[in-house]
Specification:
By secondary structure, the protein is mainly alpha-helical. 70% of the residues lie in helices and 7% in strands. It contains 11 helices and 3 strands. Strands 1-2-3 form a 3-stranded antiparallel beta sheet. Strand 1 and strand 2 form a beta hairpin. It is rod-shaped and about 100 Å long. The relative contact order is 0.09.
C-alpha cells in the first residue's frame, strides 16, 4: 500500500496546477522529490530485508542490521521532510508518534551513536550472537548516572510492521489533504467557465478582418480589438487556474503563436495595411485555426474545473 500512496501523491503533485505552484519555490520543489524518492527507495530496501533468508552474525548479519535500521530512520526523515515542504509542517516523533520515536531511538542507540550517546550519558552494544533476521539484543550501560545496565530484545520485524502501518496513516492523511486542497481550488471557479469569456461573435470579428484584407472596412480596428481582448481574457483566466500558462505547455505554445500572429496583423493589417492580400489572408486564417485549437483546450479546462 505504501508505494501505491506515494504514486498517488506523485500524480497529484504532477498535476499542472500543483506542479506550477510548487515549482515557484525551487528549494521546496527539490525537497519534495528527494523526499519521495528516498521514501520509495527505503521501502525497497526494507522489503528486500524482509525477503532475506535467515542469517546470523557471521553471514552478513551486521551489514543487514545496520542497513535496515538506517533505512527505517531515513524513511521517517523522508516523510517528515515531505510534509515540511508541502505544508510547512513538522513532526514531533516523540509526542505525536511515540512508537516511531522508539524505533528511532533503537537505531540511534545500536548503530547511530553507540560508543558515545548524549555526551557520555550511555554506551551501547549489540549482542553478537543474538543477531538474527528477527532482531538482536541491545546492551545499554549508564556509568555517568549509575543507572542499572539494561539488556533489551529489539524485534526488527515488529518495528518494520509498526512503522509501515503508522507511515501509511500519515501518507493517507497527506493524500487526503492534497486532494481537498485541489477541490477547494476548483471551487473558486464553480460555474465560472472560461468559454463564457469568449464572445459568440468571435468568428464574426475574424470574418471582418478578412473583409478588410480584401478592401477597406472602416471599423476593423474595433473587430481586431475584440479579438485581441478575447485572447488576453483567456490568458488571464488560465493563469488564475494554473498560476502560469506555462503549466499547460500545449496551450502556452498556441497562445504564443496567436500573440505573434496578432502582432503581425496589428502592424500589417491595422496600423499600416500592406498590399499583399495573400499574406494577410494566410495570417488571418492561421489566427482562426489556432483560436479554435485554443478554444478546444479551454473546453477541456472547463470540464476539469466543472
Amino acid at each position: 500500500m505504501t508505494t501505491e500512496l506515494t504514486k498517488e501523491i506523485r500524480d497529484i503533485l504532477n498535476h499542472p496546477w500543483k506542479r506550477e505552484l510548487l515549482f515557484q519555490d525551487r528549494v521546496k520543489w527539490n525537497k519534495i522529490w528527494a523526499s519521495l524518492d528516498t521514501f520509495d527507495d527505503t521501502h525497497k530496501a526494507i522489503t528486500h530485508y524482509l525477503n532475506l533468508d535467515e542469517f546470523g552474525p557471521n553471514d552478513g548479519g551486521y551489514l543487514y542490521i545496520y542497513g535496515v535500521l538506517q533505512a527505517i530512520n531515513l524513511q521517517q526523515d523522508a516523510l517528515k521532510n515531505l510534509l515540511s515542504a508541502l505544508f510547512d509542517k513538522t513532526i514531533d516523533w516523540e509526542t505525536e508518534y511515540p512508537d516511531l520515536y522508539k524505533i528511532r531511538e533503537h537505531r540511534n542507540d545500536s548503530i547511530g551513536h553507540p560508543s558515545k550517546r548524549g555526551n557520555d550519558k550511555s554506551f551501547h552494544m549489540i549482542g553478537r550472537y543474538s543477531i538474527s533476521k528477527v532482531g538482536f539484543t541491545l546492551a545499554s550501560y549508564f556509568p555517568k548516572s549509575g543507572d542499572k545496565s539494561k539488556f533489551e530484545k529489539i524485534d526488527l520485524l515488529k518495528c518494520i510492521e509498526s512503522q509501515s502501518r503508522l507511515l501509511n496513516v500519515i501518507l493517507t492523511d497527506t493524500m487526503n489533504e492534497l486532494t481537498n486542497e485541489f477541490k477547494e481550488h476548483k471551487k473558486k471557479f464553480k460555474g465560472d467557465k472560461i468559454r463564457s469569456k469568449i464572445p459568440s461573435t468571435y468568428d464574426y470579428h475574424i470574418s471582418k478582418l478578412f473583409e478588410h484584407a480584401y478592401g477597406n472596412y472602416p471599423v476593423v480596428d474595433m473587430n481586431f480589438k475584440i479579438v485581441k481582448e478575447t485572447i488576453d481574457n483567456i490568458k488571464a483566466e488560465v493563469t488564475k487556474r494554473y498560476f502560469r500558462t506555462s503549466a499547460l505547455q500545449g496551450l502556452e505554445d498556441t497562445l504564443n503563436l496567436i500573440e505573434y500572429i496578432l502582432k503581425r496583423l496589428e502592424k500589417t493589417l491595422i496600423q499600416n495595411k500592406i498590399s499583399d492580400e495573400n499574406e494577410l489572408r494566410i495570417f488571418i486564417q492561421s489566427l482562426r485555426q489556432n483560436s479554435q485549437e485554443l478554444f478546444d483546450m479551454v473546453d477541456e479546462i472547463d470540464t476539469e474545473f466543472r
